[in-house]
Predict the structure.
Amino acid sequence: MSRPGVLTGSAMLVENGRITQVGSASRIENLTQAKKAKEVDASGCVVVPGLVDCHTHLLFPAPRLSDYEKRIGGATYEEIAASGGGILSTVKAVRSSTAAGLEAAAARSLGLMASHGTLLAEAKSGYGLETGLELRLLRALHRVNGPAEVVPTCLGAHAIPPEWKQNPDGYVAHVCGELLPEVARHKLAEFADIYCDDTAFSVEQAARYFEAAAKLGFGLKIHASQFSSIGAVELAVKWGALSADHLEAIEPSDVELLARSETIAVLLPVSVLHLGLSRYAPARSLIDAGSAVALATDFNPGSSPTPSLPLVMSLACAQMRMSPAEALTAVTINAAAALRRVESAGMLASGRPADFALFNVQDYREIPYYLGANLLKLSYRAGKPVYRQGGI
Ligand code: NIG
Ligand code: FE
C-alpha cells in the first residue's frame, strides 16, 4: 500500500477507451503525432486512476437535517434512530418517492461524487426494506446514467422495518426467502450487505443472511463493529466475506483475524467525524498486521453526507495515521478489490480502461494535504471527458 508506483515525465496513449501505452512523455508524444491523436496537456498536474468509492448509500431522496441538528444538540446516532429519525426516516421518504424521483436523486449524488474524482461507485439499497421498493432502488441505480459507473449492492438487512418490529427474525427470514432470491433472479446486485450491530441485526441473523446470500451467489459484505463489537468480524472472516466495513469498535483479536484473511477492511472515517465521535478504526494496526485496507465515503444522509474521497483521504492521514501513499492505494486499487474490479479499475496501465482523473497539484500528497479543497481539474471515463473544473 505504501508504493503507489509514481511515474514522472510520463504520458499515456489512449485508444478506443483504453490505455494502450504508458511511457516517457517524449516517446508517447511522438506516437500521438504519428497517429494524429488529440493531446491532453497534464503538465503541472498529477494523473491518478479514477477514484473508486467502494461503500456508499448514495440513493437517498433528501438530507436529514433535523437528525443533524439533534446530533449537534447532543443526541447519539442510536438515540436519533430510536426517536423516529435515522435510517427509518429515509425509508419513509423512499416509500413516498417515485421511480423518476429516485433516479434524479441518484444522479445528483453521482454528479457530486464525480466532481471529486470518483469514477466507480458502489451503491447500496437498504432504504426500501420491502421487496418491491428494494427492487425499485436497485433498478434506479442500474438506470442512472451518470459520469461514474455504479455497482449496486443489496442491503435488504439495513434496519428492521416498522411492520416487522415485533418479529425481526421473521423479517430476516422474509429477506432470505423472498428479497434476495428476487434480486438474484433479476440480476440486480452483485453483493449482499447487512448491518450487524447491537442496535441492528445480530450475528445469528447475519449468519442466516450470509448463508442465503452465498447460496444465491452474492459476494458478501457486512457493516461490522461500527458501534459495538459483537462478533461480526469473526462471522465475516468465517464466511469469506469480500469486505468488512466500518470496524471502529473492533478488538485487537479482530485485527489479527482480518490480517490472516482475504476479507478487505473498508474504513469510513467521515462517519466518525460527522457523528462527532473520536474513535476511528485502527487503520495503522490493520495495515501493519498485513490487512488490505480500503477507504470509502459511506455517502449517506445520516452518518456521512460527503461525496468526497479526497476528504476521506485527508482524514485517514490526519486522524488514522495512514500515509498519503496508503490512502491513495486505499481509494484506488484496494477499493477496486473490494468491488471485485481489480482487472478494470483502480490502476493505470496498458490494456486497462482509460478512467483517470487529473488533479491540479504537483505531488499526489497534496491531494489529502489540502483538506476540504476540491483540486480535481479534469476526469476521463473510457477516454471521454466527464468532468472539467468550471464545466465541460
Ligand atoms: O454505514 N450504520 C448503518 N448504515 C449507514 C448509515 C445510514 C443512514 O444513517 O442512513 C452507515 O453509517
Ligand atoms: Fe454504510
